[in-house]
Write a structure and sequence with these properties.
single chain; 151 residues; alpha/beta; Ribosomal Protein L13p, Chain: A; 4-stranded parallel β-sheet; two-stranded antiparallel ribbon; 6 strands; 29% helix; 17% strand
């Protein structure tokens, strides 16, 4: 009697659409749940080397919050490749100018650092600073996450 390992195939997966309201949610906890859904870890047929995840729409990205003193201390680092051409952008400035990048960068840090991780981030995550989004035709399911209240 031989035992075989089940390996999921692309035809076995159905990619759903979910919508998440980021209003008042903590950035790190929100990004963790979004990365879990994008990877497909919430499904029993999760396969690490395949695209098993679902699409996520994040609305109200400009209303996300951080805990502690991260609002004053957190910075985003960029470098052009030339000596001395690095930029440190404070969290408050990034949230004011590009709120969608705050969530995208947080989710990017929680996905695998390979071609599949980059593909999932590019194709499965859509972030909007306000409550409006153009994906109503996909009939997304509203997701709510339980988050502990900050003290």
């Amino acid at each position: 009697m031989s035992q075989t390992t089940y390996s999921a195939r692309p035809v076995d997966f159905e990619h759903k659409w979910f919508i998440v309201d980021a209003d008042g949610m903590v950035l790190g906890r929100l990004a963790t749940e979004i990365a879990r859904i994008i990877r497909g870890k919430h499904k029993p047929m999760f396969t690490p080397h395949m695209d098993t995840g679902d699409n996520v729409i994040v609305i109200n990205a400009s209303k996300v919050r951080v805990t502690g003193r991260k609002a004053e201390q957190k910075t985003y680092f960029m470098h052009s490749g030339y000596m001395g051409h690095d930029k440190q952008i404070p969290f408050a400035t990034m949230l004011a100018k590009h709120p969608e990048r705050v969530i995208e960068k947080a989710v990017h840090g929680m996905l695998p650092k390979n071609a599949l991780g980059r593909q999932k981030l590019r194709l499965k995550l859509r972030v909007y600073p306000g409550a409006e989004h153009p994906h109503m035709a996909q009939q997304p399911t509203v997701l709510t996450f339980k988050q502990a209240e900050a003290k």
